[in-house]
TrEMBL record:
<feature type="transmembrane region" description="Helical">
    <location>
        <begin position="551"/>
        <end position="569"/>
    </location>
</feature>
<feature type="transmembrane region" description="Helical">
    <location>
        <begin position="250"/>
        <end position="268"/>
    </location>
</feature>
<dbReference type="GO" id="GO:0006884">
    <property type="term" value="P:cell volume homeostasis"/>
</dbReference>
<dbReference type="InterPro" id="IPR000076">
    <property type="entry name" value="KCL_cotranspt"/>
</dbReference>
<keyword id="KW-0812">Transmembrane</keyword>
<feature type="domain" description="Amino acid permease/ SLC12A">
    <location>
        <begin position="391"/>
        <end position="662"/>
    </location>
</feature>
<dbReference type="InterPro" id="IPR018491">
    <property type="entry name" value="SLC12_C"/>
</dbReference>
<dbReference type="GO" id="GO:0045202">
    <property type="term" value="C:synapse"/>
</dbReference>
<dbReference type="GO" id="GO:0055064">
    <property type="term" value="P:chloride ion homeostasis"/>
</dbReference>
<feature type="region of interest" description="Disordered">
    <location>
        <begin position="1"/>
        <end position="32"/>
    </location>
</feature>
<keyword id="KW-0813">Transport</keyword>
<dbReference type="Pfam" id="PF03522">
    <property type="entry name" value="SLC12"/>
</dbReference>
<dbReference type="InterPro" id="IPR004842">
    <property type="entry name" value="SLC12A_fam"/>
</dbReference>
<protein>
    <submittedName>
        <fullName>Solute carrier family 12 member 4</fullName>
    </submittedName>
</protein>
<feature type="transmembrane region" description="Helical">
    <location>
        <begin position="226"/>
        <end position="243"/>
    </location>
</feature>
<dbReference type="GO" id="GO:0005886">
    <property type="term" value="C:plasma membrane"/>
</dbReference>
<feature type="domain" description="SLC12A transporter C-terminal">
    <location>
        <begin position="953"/>
        <end position="1065"/>
    </location>
</feature>
Length: 1065
């Protein structure tokens, strides 16, 4: 966890919490800084003491560090203002972890449902259910202990552990689900308290009453809704008044729980010698509801007369002894009375070893009693004890598991613990061990002491509406009834106080926009002013209780996953003090959590996972820009390393080839991207797939330009985000721009994940500029890409390219396939058409046929080739007849060479002048170092396509004065006399025949392309290679200009020397 690290955070403000990234290195104490700077024994380090403090300063800040969770910026000021009034955490293992965990684990299930689970599933399967649930929580506690002891755990508990181990997306999603689970747990405890209150404490308090004995469930639900809302409101008032009162009452509530459990054990021991008297009335082998009659018999003796009993009146329509109007089953079976609590020495455990799962409405029967199987009347069904729901093993697992939860109660209080790293593991594991032993022993005791039909009686109808577990307790069933009532109320209060703490921890991390801290009222150690809306509706949403089980399991699953990921990654910061963990145990716990989720209810599991998934995507979409050193990032790095090593095996197959782009951008003087449409084109070409590296070059010295480099990278990243380009940014500093571009071409990428295509802009305005550096840098880049066997794309007139918001409803993408260059011209239109901007454009392919070519056959072959490539395109073959070189072509070539010669002479005269200036500067200054210093002071950041000539030293003429001598005046006079001669040479120059031929080709192709593709949305064209003789570089630029004249959008494409498209599958 990053909170253990002692480091300087270099992240921007959006990444994580500064206090969390660097909790000890506060530089607010200026006095201590001054004393650090002038320490005589640390003179060697005095210049760095502002970022690398003395060890004594570090330790003093470490001691004063508090592990209370840090909030958002607006709350940090309030925290600093209240620092003097803040009390340090002082809770130990017993009060801070062990007892809260006991109170949260023990609860409503133990007293209300465990006997029913034992009776339905049997002792053996109940033991298995308890073992599964307790093993799951124990494995989770082991993983949680490892995470909790790997650094300081502020308030937030499980959420903090998961978010800092698996990232903000997982942490936020699971944290909110855990919050909802805790909220629904409060509803479960409240409903349990209301059930005890209305069924066993004061049944007369019921507001709604059933119309008859068959319609009792609906009235009970309505009573629970009303009383549940009242109880929740009263508990909310208690919480609102102050958490300290809840903490004070917690000891009382826990004492009630312990006394109740002790009374169960005391009653079980007493039952060996003197079992309690709770007779069960049976009709045949069917169990009767005892509260509907007084005497367990068909007749009673009143004086000397035998008269029908109340039971007879229930089953017969008349009070006489005539059997004509009685229920058939009642007539043919005898009424018997058995002992409901036979006792520990009775051997009843043999009958209760195996389960008896029932369907809804099935009557509770004791198989060992004799019975005549006669179909009775449905009118008498309400007099029997029957199952209210259909039962199965998976259902019982889901019902029991909430009684094993609550293990996070200690970690949720981590901000209040004196030593959380010690208290959380010890207290949690001891609490789980204690509760597990109680559950295991209770299963055995219930099965060994209580009759099976009584165990399966969920609401105690057979024992005269008594709580079943209360019938076993000693000295009185009221001990269990009162104790269980207060324990459920206490557990509900704990949930009401724990859920807001968790929600506040999530909100303060500022990863979920709708949970902004400013929209929530503050929680402090004394009060909670934070109302939880889900609590208000939870008594009305009984189905939501099913999600509680799934939410808790999901939280436990991710705690195990976090521990396993951290262990397997072996990150240097993973150094837990708790040593008794292993990644295999974490994976086993994770597997058990996942299995229990689907075993209990697969559809609720899918819904819960869907809720967590939507929260995850919401946080990811909103951009949770947090860097917490989480394990998912480490896992991504490991996966990336593995994949890169696999890619090193060789180049990708032709079927897997896709353009991996290196986009060379030009920055202006303000370090802004000059042509953003370069990135737009890259995003449209990639559509989010493959590798994209955006590079730029800053001219200068790296030591002096580091700040400009950071600013440039940030400007490029911002533009990439605007243009939706997913990729990486790299800015290099070089003394010459052409060298920087060469470095980018050579070194960008890593291993097998390198670029294979370079995208660069056209050097606009090269004709009007006397400076040759722009086009020389351009041509040098073309040569570098060719030497590196990389493909090259040059979008010309890129400012006219469409934005990502435009849509072409029609039009063509024209491909002029003049020479075969690996198939890139075929592949690029297909990739562009995947983007919504170009999707509705059609593709046309033109190829050029010479005089000796069969154009008809070429068209058929090309159509077949495109069919095999699975590309839909129109095919046209353009015939270019041999023709004489026109006067226009000859004149264009002549003008090109005259301009080139004129610029050469101008550059020679400038070079001569600069050499003269240099000679006099050497005489003027004492050392060459001074000259270099002056020259470097004049260097400014160059553009991407401009670079100084290696043989030219730039010195501003106005900063140098020339001393005229007679020799200089004579040389100047000769130059003036030679000017007319130079002009006559330009007039009499004859163009080179090879240049004439090239110009002829460029002119003819341009005429054909403009004629056929003047209305095309985009024209793709083979880019000719630069001449081998570098003296013709300027002519090469002219040829490209002529070739693309009159076209609005042109993409010049040059292949990398390998096939990129194939006809094979």
């Amino acid at each position: 966890m990053p909170i253990n690290k002692v480091e300087i955070s270099t992240l921007p403000p959006g990444h994580g919490n500064h206090k969390e990234d660097s909790p000890f290195l506060s530089t607010s104490d200026s006095a201590s800084k001054r004393s650090d700077y002038y320490d005589k024994n640390l003179a060697l380090f005095e210049e760095e003491l502002d970022i690398r403090p003395k060890v004594s300063s570090l330790l003093s800040r470490l001691v004063s560090y508090t592990n209370v969770t840090q909030g958002a910026k607006e709350h940090e000021e309030a925290e600093s203002a209240d620092a003097s009034r803040r009390q340090s955490p002082n809770m130990g293992t017993l009060m801070g972890v062990y007892l809260p965990c006991l109170q949260n684990i023990f609860g409503v299930i133990l007293f209300l449902r465990l006997t029913w689970i034992v009776g339905t599933a049997g002792v053996v399967q109940s033991f298995l259910i308890v073992l599964m649930c307790c093993s799951c929580t124990m494995l989770t506690a082991i993983s949680m202990s490892a995470i909790a002891t790997n650094g300081v755990v502020p308030a937030g508990g499980a959420y903090f552990m998961i978010s800092r181990s698996l990232g903000p997306e997982f942490g936020g999603a699971v944290g909110l689900c855990f919050y909802l689970g805790t909220t629904f747990a409060a509803a479960m405890y409240i409903l349990g308290a209301i059930e005890i209150f209305l069924k066993y404490l004061i049944p007369q308090a019921a507001i709604f009453h059933p119309a008859d004995i068959h319609a009792g469930s609906g009235a009970m639900l309505n009573n629970m809704r009303v009383y549940g809302t009242i109880c929740l409101s009263l508990m909310a008032v208690v919480v609102f008044v102050g958490v300290k009162y809840v903490n004070k009452l917690a000891s009382l509530f826990l004492a009630c729980v312990i006394i109740s459990i002790v009374s169960i054990y005391a009653g079980a021991v007493k039952s060996i010698f003197h079992p309690p008297e709770f007779p069960i009335c049976m009709l045949g082998n069917r169990t009767l509801s005892r509260d509907l009659f007084d005497v367990c018999g068909k007749t009673v003796v009143v004086g000397n007369d035998t008269v029908p009993s109340q039971l007879w009146k229930n089953f017969c329509s008349s009070e006489n002894s005539s059997s004509a109007h009685c229920d058939e089953y009642f007539l043919h079976n005898n009424v018997t009375e058995i002992q409901g609590i036979p006792g520990l020495a009775s051997g009843i455990i043999k009958e209760n070893l195996w389960g008896d799962y029932m369907e809804k409405g099935q009557i509770l029967e004791k198989a060992s009693l004799p019975s005549v199987d006669v179909h009775g009347s449905m009118e008498t069904f309400g007099f029997y004890v029957s199952a209210d729901i259909a039962t199965s093993f998976t259902l019982l697992v889901g019902i029991f598991f909430p009684s094993a939860t609550g293990i996070m109660a200690g970690s949720n209080r981590s901000g209040d613990l004196r030593d959380a790293q010690k208290s959380i593991p010890i207290g949690t594991i001891l609490a789980i061990t204690t509760t597990s032993l109680v559950y295991f022993s209770s299963v055995v005791l219930f099965g060994a002491c209580i009759e099976g039909v009584v165990l399966r009686d969920k609401f105690g109808d057979a024992v005269n509406k008594n709580l079943v577990v209360g019938t076993l307790s000693w000295p009185s069933p009221w001990v269990i009834v009162i104790g269980s009532f207060f324990s459920t109320v206490g557990a509900g209060l704990q949930s009401l106080t724990g859920a807001p703490r968790l929600l506040q921890a999530i909100a303060k991390d500022n990863i979920i926009p709708f949970l902004r801290v400013r929209d929530l009222l503050i929680y402090d150690r004394k009060k909670i002013y934070q109302m939880n809306t889900p609590h208000l509706f939870s008594p009305w949403c009984f189905s939501s209780l099913q999600y509680q089980f799934e939410f808790f399991l999901m939280c436990y699953l991710f705690v195990n996953l976090a521990c396993a990921v951290q262990t397997l990654l072996r990150t240097p910061n993973w150094r837990p003090r708790f040593r008794y963990y292993h990644w295999a145990l974490s994976f086993l716990g994770m597997s058990m959590c996942l299995a229990l989720m689907f075993i209990s209810s697969w559809y609720y599991a899918i819904v819960a996972m869907g809720i967590a998934g939507m929260i995850y995507k919401y946080i990811e979409y909103q951009g949770a820009e947090k860097e917490w050193g989480d394990g998912i990032r480490g896992l991504s790095l490991s996966a990336a390393r593995y994949s890169l090593l696999r890619l090193e095996a060789g180049p990708p197959h032709t079927k897997n080839w896709r353009p991996q782009l290196l986009v060379l951008l030009k920055l202006d003087e303000d370090l802004h991207v000059k042509y953003p449409r370069m990135l737009t084109f890259a995003s449209q070409l990639k559509a989010g797939k493959g590798l994209t590296i955006v590079g730029s070059v800053i001219q200068g010295n790296f030591l002096e330009c580091y700040g400009e480099t950071q600013a440039s990278e940030q400007a490029i990243k911002n533009m990439m985000e605007i243009e939706r380009v997913k990729g990486f940014c790299q800015v290099v500093v070089a003394s010459k721009v052409r060298e920087g571009i060469a470095h980018l071409i050579q070194s960008c990428g890593l291993g097998g994940m390198k670029h294979n295509t370079v995208v660069m802009g056209w050097p606009y305005g090269w004709r009007q500029s006397e400076d040759p550096r722009a086009w020389k840098t351009f041509i040098n880049t073309v040569r570098c890409t060719t030497a590196a066997h990389l493909a090259l794309m040059v979008p010309k007139n890129v400012s006219f390219y469409p934005s990502n918001h435009e849509r072409f409803s029609d039009g063509y993408i024209d491909v002029w396939w003049i020479v075969h260059d690996g198939g890139m011209l075929m592949l690029l239109p297909f990739l562009l058409k995947q983007h919504k901007v170009w999707r509705k454009c059609k593709m046309r392919i033109f190829t050029v046929a010479q005089m000796d070519d069969n154009s008809i056959q070429m068209k058929k072959d090309l159509a077949t080739f495109l069919y095999q490539l699975r590309l839909e395109a129109e095919v046209e073959v353009v015939e270019m007849h041999d023709s004489d070189i026109s006067a226009y072509t000859y004149e264009r070539t002549l003008m090109m060479e005259q301009r080139s010669q004129m610029l050469k002479q101008m550059r020679l005269s400038i070079a001569e002048r600069d050499r003269e200036v240099l000679r006099h500067s050497l005489l003027k200054y004492a050392s060459f170092a001074q000259l270099v210093k002056d020259r470097h002071s004049l260097i400014r950041m160059g553009s991407l396509y401009s670079d100084e000539e290696e043989e030219t030293i730039e010195v501003l003429p106005e900063k140098n004065q020339m001393t005229w001598t007679s020799e200089k005046m004579e040389a100047e006079r000769r130059n003036r006399n030679n000017a007319p001669e130079n002009f006559r040479e330009l007039i009499s120059i004859k163009p080179d025949q090879s240049n004439v031929r090239r110009m002829h080709t460029a002119v003819k192709l341009n005429e054909v392309i403009v004629n056929r593709s003047h209305d095309a949305r985009l024209v793709l064209l083979n880019m000719p290679g630069p001449p081998r003789n570098q003296e013709g570089d300027e002519n090469y630029m002219e040829f490209l200009e002529v070739l693309t004249e009159g076209l609005e959008r042109v993409l010049l494409v040059r292949g990398g020397g390998r096939e990129v498209i194939t006809i094979y599958s």
